[in-house]
Every structure is written in C-alpha cells, then in structure tokens.
Amino acid sequence: MVVPMSVIVIGKDSQLRAETRAHLAATGRVHVIAESADYQRAVELIGQLHPQGAVILVNGDEDAALDLVRQIGREHPRTAIICTGKHCASETIVRAYRAGAHEFLMQPPDPRELREVLERLEAFLGEGEAKRIGRIIAVYSSRGGSGTTTIAVNVAAALARCTRQETVIVDLNLQHGCLPVFFGIEPTYSLADIARNEQRLDVQLLRSFLTKVTEELYCLAAPLKPEEADDIFPAHLEMALGLLRTQFAHVVVDTPHVLDPNTIAALDHADVIFVVTVGDLASLYTTKRVLETFRRMGYDAEKVRLVLNRYVKNKEVPVEKLEDVLGQKVAFTLAEDARAALEAINMGKPLALSESKSPLVRQVLELAKSVAPVEEASASRMASGRGMLSRLFGGGRR
C-alpha cells in the first residue's frame, strides 16, 4: 500500500495535536507515524523515522516553534515542513515562511485547502520520494485461551509465504510471550533492546533486533526476562511500529488481553484489528464490551473485524444470533482443529508454513487475503498458480 506522505506532528498543545492528526487522517493521503510535544525529541524522531513531512503547531511559544522550523530545515532538508495554528496573525504566517516552512494551514483547515496543500507537497517531494508504508494488523482477544497467538502467527506466516513480501510479527505479550515456541526460534534480542536503545534507534539497529524465521518472515520477540516488561512504554512501541512499517509490507502484532497503555498504542496505530472470540457465554460477554469500547475509541467497522474461532457448525449458536448479541457482523469463522494446531506448536512450524490438510489453513489464508488483496501481492506469484498456498490464496472469501 502506497501512502503519499508519512508525517510527524509536533506541538505543545495536546488537544490541537489530536485535532490535527484527525484532520490529516481524514484525507486518506497522510499517515501520522509519530507525534511529540518536546521539540528536541521531535528532531531526534525525524532522524530516526525519516518522515516525509513535519507538521508543526505554532500556537503557544511561537519563537521556539519557528526556531524548530529552522533547525529541521537545516538538519533535515528533505523533510517538508507544514506550520499550522489557530487564530494566527498574518505576521506569524509570514515569519513561518521566512523560517523555512513550505506551507501554512489555519486550524481547523478547510478540506479543499488541505487537499491542495498536500498536492503541492507531493509535487515538492516528487514521485521518487514516495515511501512504501506497510499495514499494521493487530490480533486481539478480551480473554485468554481464544487462540489469539495461533491466529496471529499463522496470519503472519501466510502473508509472508503467499505475497513473498517481508512480514514481521511483534510479540506484545511482554511478560510471557511465546512466539519463539510457535516458530521454533531462539531470539537473542527483543523489545527490551528497543527500550534500552531508544535514543539511537534507527532502521539498521531495529533490524538487528529481529529474529529471522524464513526469507520473508521476521519476529520481534517479547522481553527475554519478564521483569524487562516494566521498561517498555507506549513511546517505544510507537517508535518501533513507525519504523517497522517503513521496512515491512505487513506488521502483525500479537497483543495481550488487557487494554493497557501499551496495547492501546498498538491498536491505535493498527490499520486492522482482528478481534478474536469463541462461542461460550463468558467470551461473548467480554467481547461485546470490548467492541463497545472500541466504538467509543473511534475505531470504525472497517478497522475492527470480528473473528469467531473454533466454531463448530450445527453444534453451537448460529452465527446470526451471535452477531445480534455482539452488535457486529462476524467477518470470519475458523473451524475447530485442536489436533492440527497443537501439532504445529509442538513442531515449531505454523500451519500456514506446512502442507497440512486442515481446513484451518484455507481459513487463515482468507484472513491474510483480507488484509493483503491479491492486487497488492506479487503479481508473478499470483499469476503462476504454483503450489497449494497460491491456489488457495486466489480463492474467494468465506
């Protein structure tokens, strides 16, 4: 997926930052990869994340904001600078342009004016500057034992194998992450190393912290010691996810069951959230509450997709009735196949990387296909039709 601009939003006013982020996101042409209230930290983030644009809020300490414009212009001349603010005098706008801003937007921006500004900046950056921005797919369940990790592992493996595009899976179960067992790997580095090296983290260093699973699949492991989980904060995850999506076509996040600040940071940055549930009453109760919470958080139906796991047709409540209870359509159902799933774990090889005949394989591929449409995958791979997985990947939806 090609996003015209990756930007960082910088400003002291948290409310104005949130409003600016919402206006930019509404265009569908901008992805905010980070934000900061600290000017020096913002400059460091630009050096680490290499955004195409920096949106600077000039309300408040105007002189300091314009000094920041000059600093970014000197140190990162390839970064487009957009200044913005509320009730700004014409003198402020002139000063911003003289400091080096490429554009100035009044808040709230007129949609047409915002579109024209983005078009001019795209022309300034040039086609050669367009960056490939990967999709972040979070897999979440409100209760343990729902199969969240199994689904996350197999979706990541299917995306890597079928699209032949680099994919990374992140283990956000910080104290007791078990992705190494599912993949049969022994990580040397983990998310804890990102926290320890936040001031000098860049793409090259981040890649060195990943564990290679296959040619296209990588894993960012949870901390190797449970106590290291306390050292990881949302800012570390935002930085890691922002960098990963500039390098990988797909970033799959295996999330824990609690909606703590770290989990919310990952969910906020996700393009798609697979909410996993099973058919028992307790799971349906907590899933309904989670879906309601996500709606209050502003997540729309396209972002939140309900997955009914371990469903046995004719033995459980009909899907239609479950949808009525949950207040949302079930996007995908996955069959019960405990034996195949357990064998895959014990072998350290996901079903999606095996030649298993389990119906779960096809169903997981449908999940993968929903976040990596055929037209975005490798054309030659899809056209060749070779192999079981490529044939399945070309099939229709459930």
Descriptive overview:
The chain has 398 residues and is an alpha/beta fold. It has 2 domains: 2-131, Rossmann fold, CATH 3.40.50.2300; 134-393, P-loop containing nucleotide triphosphate hydrolases (Rossmann fold). Helix content is 45%, strand content 19%. Strand 14 (304-311), helix 13 and strand 15 form a beta-alpha-beta unit.
What is the number of E strands? Answer: 15
CATH superfamily of the largest domain: P-loop containing nucleotide triphosphate hydrolases
Tell me the major beta sheet.
Answer: 8 strands, mixed
Whole-Å distance between the termini?
24 Å
In DSSP terms, counting alpha (H) and pi (I) runs of 4 or more, how many helices? Answer: 17
- Proportion of beta-strand residues: 15-25%
CATH class assignment of the largest domain: Alpha Beta
Mean pLDDT: 85
Structural class: alpha/beta
CATH topology of the largest domain: Rossmann fold
Question: What's this, in brief?
Answer:
This protein has helices at 14-27, 39-49, 62-75, 90-99, 111-125, 148-163, 179-183, 191-196, 203-208, 234-247, 261-269, 281-296, 319-326, 338-347, 359-371, 379-384, 388-393; strands spanning 2-3, 5-10, 30-36, 53-57, 80-85, 103-106, 131-132, 135-140, 167-171, 211-212, 217-220, 250-254, 272-277, 304-311, 330-335.
Give me some keywords for this one.
398 residues; Rossmann fold; alpha/beta; eight-stranded mixed beta sheet; five-stranded parallel beta sheet; globular
Please describe the topology of this protein.
Layout: E1 2-3, E2 5-10, H1 14-27, E3 30-36, H2 39-49, E4 53-57, H3 62-75, E5 80-85, H4 90-99, E6 103-106, H5 111-125, E7 131-132, E8 135-140, H6 148-163, E9 167-171, H7 179-183, H8 191-196, H9 203-208, E10 211-212, E11 217-220, H10 234-247, E12 250-254, H11 261-269, E13 272-277, H12 281-296, E14 304-311, H13 319-326, E15 330-335, H14 338-347, H15 359-371, H16 379-384, H17 388-393
Parallel strand pairs: 2-3, 2-4, 4-5, 5-6, 8-12, 8-13, 9-11, 9-12, 13-14, 14-15
Antiparallel strand pairs: 1-7, 10-11
